[in-house]
């Protein structure tokens, strides 16, 4: 059975409000700023895998062009308390918002289940949201923490290439337009055919 978050692909990403690592409310409304949003849910601040993953995103923001091209919003969320998140952020010098979802509000909204056969409060899951606020894809992998930043890099490159392509009219609209142009009006049908002028002798 597919994880619940997979059923959200193609729909508007839910807005949530959670405390950040300073205890201040952070309103996360994907699409509001007209930029792609990446939300990564991780099981436990300070654990080996979560630290590696969080630092990979930190490094990607500083080093990878795909993370800088469109002012991408990266947000980390876990069930940890504000205090634990603050320690986690400061120790690892994280440069993006990290939110505390101690009551599971965001996890529920995004269909994030438990990980490690129920041993982890949330499964390690990353959500890709485009600039219009539409969920485009998700990936889950509690043990494979290294796959998430790579997954995001490829998706950001894809979103950037979509933005650069010219907008094309749907095939049905194009065909309809062609038919409209080709079809003569009633006035044109009733008008006599033009007779070529004869050359003067």
Automatic annotation (TrEMBL):
Keywords: Antioxidant, Disulfide bond, Oxidoreductase, Peroxidase, Redox-active center. The active site is at 50 (cysteine sulfenic acid (-soh) intermediate). Residues 7-161 form the Thioredoxin domain. The keyword Kinase does not apply. GO terms for molecular function: thioredoxin peroxidase activity. GO terms for biological process: cell redox homeostasis; cellular response to oxidative stress. Residues 168-201 have a biased composition (Low complexity). This is thioredoxin-dependent peroxiredoxin. The lineage of its organism: Eukaryota, Fungi, Dikarya, Basidiomycota, Agaricomycotina.
């Amino acid at each position: 059975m597919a994880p619940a978050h997979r059923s959200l692909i193609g729909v508007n990403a839910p807005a949530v409000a959670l405390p950040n690592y300073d205890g201040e409310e952070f309103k996360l409304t994907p699409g509001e700023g007209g930029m792609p949003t990446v939300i990564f849910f991780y099981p436990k601040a300070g654990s080996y895998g979560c630290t590696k993953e969080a630092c990979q995103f930190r490094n990607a923001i500083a080093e990878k062009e795909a993370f800088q091209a469109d002012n991408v919003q990266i947000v980390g969320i876990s069930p940890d308390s504000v205090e634990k998140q603050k320690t986690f952020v400061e120790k690892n010098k994280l440069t993006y918002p990290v939110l505390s979802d101690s009551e599971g509000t965001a996890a529920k909204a995004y269909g994030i289940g438990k990980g490690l056969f129920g041993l982890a409060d949330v499964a390690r899951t990353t959500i890709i949201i485009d600039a219009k606020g539409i969920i485009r894809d998700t990936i889950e992998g509690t043990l494979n923490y290294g796959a998430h930043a790579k997954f995001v890099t490829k998706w950001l490159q894809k979103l950037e290439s979509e933005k650069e392509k010219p907008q094309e009219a749907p095939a049905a609209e194009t065909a309809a337009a062609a038919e409209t142009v080709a079809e003569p009006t009633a006035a044109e049908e009733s008008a006599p055919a033009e007779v070529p002028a004869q050359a003067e002798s």
